[in-house]
Amino acid sequence: MRLRRELVVVVVLLAVVGALARTSAGRFVLPLVALVVVVGMGLLLRKRPAYSRTTFGPRTRILESDTADPDVTCVECDAPATTTRHYVREWVVLGVPVVLLDDGENPVCDDHRD
Fold first, then answer.
1. 77, 60 in Cβ contact below 8 A?
2. Model pTM?
């Protein structure tokens, strides 16, 4: 659902930019929009990349943390979980995550950690 909503926003923005390009106001607005896009990309490139700078497209990261709650059980065998794996699926441009596609967590025990 989130991707569909973002696609609708992009299409509407492109329609507005196309309408502005045909007016005299477009001479002033479109260079300003281009400047905002360039500054936004510059800010994205200054961030520490989660992936290599040549990465483009959907990628998945897995982050692990210790589980403090003793009531949490492993998703594989129902033993007490010792680690929680947080996974993040995201769309990446130049090594910087731009759109979150999916995320979640899975508690696992030491036997199913690898």
1. no
2. 0.52
Pseudo-torsion of CA 7, 8, 10, 14, nearest 10°?
140
Number of domains in the chain: 2
What is the C-alpha to C-alpha distance for residues 103 and 17, in angstroms, rounded to an integer?
33
Query: What would the pLDDT profile of 49-86 be if each residue is shown by its tens digit?
Result: 778 878 888 999 888 888 667 788 888 888 888 888 88
Mean pLDDT of 34-61: 83
pLDDT top residue among 62 and 113: 62
Task: Give residues with Cβ within 8 angstroms of 76, minimum separation 6.
Answer: 108, 109, 111, 112
- Domain that includes residue 66, residue range: 51-114
Same domain, yes or no: 39 and 69: no
